[in-house]
Amino acid sequence: MRLASSRHVLASNIESPQPLAIPLIAQIAQIAVDPYAVTLTRSGEVMTKTDLPQSAPVVLNLGHPFSEGALADLREHLGCDEITILNLPSAYDLNAPFEQQVTDQLDAANLTSIDWQNLPLLLIPPSLAVASPVVLAQIHGRRGSFPGLVRQVRTAGVLGAWRVAEVVDLEATRQAARERR
Fold this sequence. Notes:
This protein is an alpha/beta fold. Helices cover 41% and strands 18% of the residues. The protein has 2 domains: 6-48, no CATH class; 58-178, no CATH class.
């Protein structure tokens, strides 16, 4: 569905008033009734929540390299075969502010505003513990909620190998904690 600019609607109304006028009014009415039910993209396209692509989970990996064994573990935990892993830069300059470094890391994912808000995102946090809160704050700011958290542990007896221990629903954890206020 495309929301035309007012200049385009006026020109179209001169040629053929009915085709664009009714859909445009319906779109504007829908936005006025529930502004969160639709997203207006920069190109002028209107996407409703039901129009958004249903996607496999997207994992933002800021931690250790993800092995085939860890991927198999994650598939088992999530109960799905299709998973997208985005390996993002994970090195930090300890002598520079973290905020810009984390912004640059997350920008490297090349996700749109719609993606940040609607994709089922999981996070493998940075191994540097002090960077994790900055990452979570940035992701929460971009999406309006917390991502799922993939917790990895070392594989016993295998040097440098990691496996998925659990997937934590951080948003559900937050909601449960709010009830303890």
